[in-house]
Amino acid sequence: MNLLPFELTIEQAQVLKLLQQQRLIAVAGCAGSGKTSLAIEFARQLDGQGQKVLLLCRNPYLAEDIALRLKPSQVSVHAFTSFIQELLQGSQAPDVFVRRTRPRWTAEWSQYEASPQADLNRALDILKHTLQRYQAVILDEGQDFQESWLAVAEACLDDPDDGRLAVFYDDNPRLAPFGPQRIYAAFQSPITLNRNCRSAGQVEALVRQLHPGELAPGLRAGEPGTFREWLYSSEAELLDSLRQALLASEELSPRLENVVLISAESSPVRMSKFAGLVFDSPRLRADPSPGRLKWQAAVLRYLQGFGLLESQLSQAPQPAPADMKNVNKFCAAYMAAHRLALSRQTSYLSQSAFVWGLDAYSELHLRWQDGNQRDLPPIDLLRFFGNPAWVDSLPSAHKRYRLTPAEELAHQPDAYSVRLADIASFKGLESDGVIFVLYNYFAENDDQLLASLYEVFSRARRWLYAITPVDSPGKTSQASQL
Q: What is the C-alpha to C-alpha distance for residues 449 and 435, in angstroms, rounded to an integer?
């Protein structure tokens, strides 16, 4: 997220003047050309002139970022579908529609979320009868707006003959097969921004070549910008490549504060296989502020079936002497009460010992030290936990990187969270570094692949790491050669 003041280029300053002079205007441009920043600056200027301004976009996470950047103005910022929801809910109140200045939406947004036509028709009817309309409406991510959405946006104007309507959209035709140029044909001839102001070096070159139009070299094309690629052919290689990419990113952005992992999974990010995934690093192992080792959950996983209660364990980050005593006492009592049944079981502890290990989700598990995959017999579990030494083999607690969906970022105090996003939820946003995990389901759809690469690659400012399957020949493995 970038909350720094926006510095206009000469080209952008000229566009801003034209925005002030024309009532209906469309601004087309490539990714990173400053369209969103221009929309924000235009909204801020109109707000400063005392006008009521509505700014709509497609992505609710982008709406949140825009709203933060527009503070302390009175501009109303909404994701379109959330705006429709609030409009319909507000129509049930006495004041018909209460104008908000802060975006509100439910979490777990999906790129497929859209208001049904019946809701759009109701919204149009509500807007005909409300006095709470706007003097200016600004649309960002215009390439994602349908014609019916544009009709709602126009209906939000207080005076349809004199109100301002400005649309900012990406003119890469792969992003919008329906053709935004056709939708905005009634506007003045679109102003075009054809220079990437965001990406540097190799990243900028890749983004430029993924756009089929004629783009000028970006403003940061001569600055250091890195592209690296890892290939994988199995789940284990994918996770290992991801860890390598995270550690490489850590060298460029300590603690990975400004890095995002974008996954091309077809499911929403909350259902991603990477959600909650934890990675260790040498730097974090030396961190003086320890993380929390979830030893209680591990002990209960193995002993709750015997009757151990959660209340018998403390909430300490490491087992306290009272915890060891309670566990030992519980195991001894259970073994005494079930001595006959347990005596009939085969024990393997005499041959090899248990060891604790952390999986990729920071969960503790017991494993046989010799690597054997045999089950853990009840008699051996009780003997292991009946000995105070079960505590000695626990790994040390320290901070670890945790891949965290955006809506959960505020609820992960015990890990260094790395933002996890899908392609749609990070559209319109940007980050110093992007790690992109690609899957081979794009193999039969070149246009979808190229559109997705363009959307993801253009999010990176300084470096871009791609993790790609080896069984997609001629696809992303050629990205560095575009």
A: 16
Angle of the 321-337 helix axis to the 378-385 helix axis, nearest 10: 140
Instruction: Tell me the whole-structure pTM to 2 decimals.
Output: 0.81
pLDDT band at 412, cuts 50/70/90?
confident
Which residue has 């109701």 as its token pair?
122
pLDDT at 449: 86
Both tokens assigned to 368: 């046989």
The pLDDT score that the predictor gives to residue 37 is 92
